[in-house]
Design brief:
The chain is an alpha+beta fold and 359 residues long. The protein contains eleven helices and nine strands.
Length: 359
């Protein structure tokens, strides 16, 4: 009996200590972030000719991501290339500026790091960490669905990432398996900050994100805040453990209708604890949604689904990862799908020089 009580007491004290350590970490992180945010940051000097493109590892609406070598240092990066003309025609100018500035200022174990940003006449470039394990989406397709232990491991890292970003006043708005990369040790790196925005205590109204992951308040074009990120955690958890998101249809408008209705069908293999967590994260009423109440992220972290997670241990990457990507050296791109290679867009004169003057 005494051993049981002592063990429980030590566990409780350990969690209190972990929470205090996390608060200390966040305060220091915010100070560093704000020092960078308030001053004008110059990009590390680089130009297009400094990089040798090797293989496309991702594509998007405005450009592509290329595995490339930085010739002066011989190091390898994921080079995100955005066509200025597509950015402008899609009204994404402010989103691109937000992404660049946020990535210049954040630093967290589960977020990609921006190493260089530069431009030429036709394109914008952001050189990021190359994360060799590929997208979670690909691994999820291989497994069809993750078991709850795997889902807990990955979700805990997303929770910590959102705790960090929200503490800095940043909303992410585009969580999905395609934006979660696995590093060489099997831990996550959150990438693609194209919809991220610093909002502090304000609200924002833009409808952006991935259709199946949009929160009801986004669909209805209501003002919203960090609550939408917690909604996406619920969608991600459901997709990881069921192989597909809870609200889906071929017609986007029908997806929106299902999101607003908020009726969730749970498969029988999901534990009661998992079903409860997803239900609490997918509350239509923002004031009742887990993560959006007065206790914020602490209530998410205290949920029984995470009962055996020590959050500082996770932050320090000391848990064994459930998937260790197969890698054959530092330049292995085999965990990414093959894409058709296309030549870079060039222009003899500088396009949109005023709009991208500070990039």
């Amino acid at each position: 009996m005494d051993r049981t009580v002592a063990s429980g007491s030590n566990s409780h004290n350990s969690k209190l200590s972990s929470a205090a350590d996390m608060k200390t970490f966040l305060r220091k992180a915010k100070k560093k972030f704000e020092e960078k945010w308030t001053r004008s940051l110059s990009p590390k000097i680089a130009k297009t000719d400094d990089f040798e493109p090797i293989k496309t590892v991702g594509t998007g609406h405005f450009g592509r991501v290329v595995f490339a070598q930085h010739k002066p240092t011989k190091k390898y990066f994921a080079l995100k290339i955005l066509e200025k003309s597509k950015v402008m025609s899609s009204n994404q100018l402010q989103h691109v500026k937000n992404e660049k500035k946020i990535l210049q200022c954040v630093h967290f174990p589960f977020l990609v790091t921006l190493k260089f940003n530069f431009k030429d006449n036709a394109n914008l470039y952001m050189a990021l960490d190359f994360v060799p394990g590929g997208e979670m989406f690909s691994h999820l397709q291989t497994f069809r669905k993750f078991n709850e232990t795997m889902a807990r491991f990955y979700t805990a890292q997303v929770v910590l990432s959102f705790e960090y970003l929200h503490y800095l006043g940043i909303i992410y708005r585009d969580l999905k398996p395609e934006n979660l990369l696995l590093d060489s040790k099997g831990y996550l790196k959150l990438t693609d900050f194209g919809f991220a925005k610093k909002i502090d205590s304000r609200r924002t109204w833009t409808r952006c994100g991935t259709t199946e992951y949009l929160a009801p308040e986004v669909v209805l074009r209501k003002g919203y805040s960090y609550s939408v990120d917690w909604w996406t955690v619920g969608i991600l958890l459901y997709e990881m453990t069921n192989g597909q998101p809870p609200f889906r249809d071929k017609n986007p408008d029908d997806v929106y209708t299902k999101i607003i209705a908020g009726k969730i069908s749970f498969p029988t293999h999901m534990s009661r604890t998992l079903r409860n967590l997803i239900s609490e994260l997918l509350k239509i009423d923002v004031t009742k949604r887990l993560g959006s109440k007065s206790s914020g992220v602490d209530e998410v972290k205290r949920h029984p689904f995470f009962h055996n997670i020590d959050w500082m241990t996770m932050l320090q990457k000391k848990y064994p990862a459930p998937i260790i990507p197969k890698l054959n050296g530092p330049i292995d791109t085999s965990n990414f799908p093959d894409y058709d290679e296309v030549p870079l867009i060039y222009s003899r004169s500088e396009l949109y020089c005023n709009e991208f003057e500070d990039f």
